[in-house]
Design goal:
The protein has helices at residues 15-29, 65-74, 91-98, 101-108, 132-148, 172-187; strands at 2-7, 33-38, 77-83, 119-127, 151-160. The chain is an alpha/beta fold. It has a 5-stranded parallel sheet with strand order 2-1-3-4-5, sandwiched between helices. The longest helix has 17 residues, at 132-148. 39% of the residues are buried.
Length: 188
Amino acid sequence: MYILGINGSPRTGGNTDILLDKVLEGAKGRGAGVEKVILNTLKFVPCQECAKVRNDGTCQIMDDMQPLYKKIEEADVIVVASPIFFGSLSAQTKMMIDRFQCAWRGKYMLEVDIFSKKKTGAFISVEGSKRKDFFDNAKSIVKNLFATINAEYKYELFCPGIDEKAEIIKSREYLEMAAKLGEKLVSG
């Protein structure tokens, strides 16, 4: 089993990064192969809404998204991790998701499904306040991504009231929940 964790936080060593590591450690402990991609280290541009688009569901922009598309197709499980910024996903996460517009168009308009492999999807998120509607907003966007890449939105872990860098370390409960989520990703 190959589990791909996508960190959409601009901050390495922060709450989102720590939680994602715990999820991946839990999965690795159950025998899964894991990989973490940190979006903030990739060189890619936002969707350019190209005037001329391919009719095969693929993106024509050649940047670091191309290898990520391949990894997502190969994965058995996708874990998207993003902090809440301004009531939704981080810019890095949203920018990545917007780059799946070509795949969405292919799947729903042209009936060309480039992400044909079925997979499981999980979403983990941290935010400083305790506003459930912020998580709901972010979740709706991630669900659209998962539908486009044939990932069943199956698991989520939302951690409200966590704001300072690495503050999540003080929350044993959330860390344990993250590790257990990683185990569940392997065992179903």
